[in-house]
Amino acid sequence: MPSVDPTNPDSPALTHHPVPVTTDFFDFLGVQVNNPDAQLNKIRQLITDFSFPHLPTRLPLPALRRILSSCLISRIRPYLSYHPLSRSDALDLDRLLVHHVHDYLAFPFHFNSQLLFAPFAHLGFGFPSITLLNDAAAIQGILRDLNHHVRTFRTMARITLADWTCMFNRCRSPLEGSSARTFSRLKRALPSAWIAAHEVLWTFRLGIRLTDQSFLSTGDVALRHLIRNLPPPPLLP
């Protein structure tokens, strides 16, 4: 690819340098997009390399919570915002975080991870949960894609949703909570971040409703699609 000379950017002479090409993922702001395995390994390495301060006495739980939020979760949150993980991977990272706290406190038994991440109002310790952060990032991400301020990106996202709806879910929107299946095996056909968002919606029985359905009356929609979206007929007495 032609480029400028990095040693002399003002020079009019062009230089060429090779550009690696990948077909399964790409790097954006230091994050490998659509490569959840690399994202998981990177966040796991951050947790493994993290260590609490070495002091003569062990720090109390409120101090540990503040240190984790300021020094570790603040580094993990941007990765989740750019590329959410699956819920199972996020739960594994939460368990690794709990194991990290347990080893520091040297408890004789392993406590329940839900107790560590539960809010104070539910008699928990209020530690930040990677799973909850990942769930919020996945839902916010798919909403941002479908309502993007750049028309080209918004159109591409809605085309992807239309293909997902008609090719893999019998013309029923997978985001409205009517889908009774998971799509974890379609990672080569769908964005992995969208699959993670669907998993969150399916787990909590939530839905993202399509409020603008004016396209159904334009005459450009197949009859099969319309028939599959009709409500079931009422049962006869």
Short description:
By secondary structure, this protein is mostly helical. The protein has 8 helices and 4 strands; from the N terminus they run E-E-E-E-H-H-H-H-H-H-H-H. The protein has helices at residues 36-49, 61-82, 87-105, 113-117, 130-146, 151-168, 192-203, 223-228, and strands at residues 2-4, 14-16, 26-28, 31-33.
Keywords:
single chain, 237 residues, two-stranded antiparallel sheet, 8 helices, 5% strand
Describe the fold and architecture.
- By secondary structure, the chain is mainly alpha-helical.
- The chain contains eight helices and four strands.
- The strands form two sheets. A two-stranded antiparallel sheet has the order 1-2. Strands 3-4 form a two-stranded antiparallel sheet.
- A hairpin with a 2-residue loop joins β3 and β4.
- α1 packs parallel to α3, α2 runs parallel beside α5 and α3 packs antiparallel against α5.
- It starts with a strand and ends in a 9-residue tail after the last helix.
